Amino acid sequence: MDISKKTEAYYAKDQPFKKGLAVLRELALKTELQESFKWSSPVYTIDGKNVLGITAFKGHFGIWFFNGVFLKDPKKVMINAQEGKTKSMRHWKFTAVDQIDQRDVLAYMQEAIENERMGLALNVQKKKGPKMKIPVLLASALKENELAKRNFDTLAPYKQNEYSEYIATGKLEKTKLSRLNKILPMICEGIGLNDKYR
Description:
Layout: H1 3-12, H2 18-29, E1 34-38, E2 41-46, E3 49-56, E4 61-65, E5 90-94, H3 102-117, H4 136-144, H5 146-154, H6 157-168, H7 173-189
Antiparallel strand pairs: 1-2, 2-3, 3-4, 4-5
Helix pairs in contact: 2-3, 4-5, 4-7, 5-7, 6-7
């Protein structure tokens, strides 16, 4: 299913906040943002950079601003819904469609776009963890495949760790083998396990 079909399916889904989501989508589409679909919900980008996402949860729906920490927030509506996990993302929650002041929401969206254009971003240093031991299964496969070995060695340590962890966390041997078959072509191309999400 392509991105536009996934997005349409998300908004068409019968759920309590369907009308509210439709209003937020309409506002996002009034801007110059490009509609995309990532992490199982609609995401709006500019120049390939994530600006905001629209999503629904069990008890509310709302907008994720990827760099919401930089929004002036005159209405004092921004919250960090993932305290301790994210430094820059902020969320504007709604529980009913009549809570949406379209002019205010559009103003926040436009400010988020301008902030992205100015390149505002937190310089968050990723904590360097210890280098993970490469699982035997992956190490053997790399030994047998010269291209994979060469490209694996050029990957950043955290990307090597992601691949190692992906194999190591497989509970069954067949799961590990299936994962290995999936990642070997990616390693041969020199791409990281989670590059498509970055």
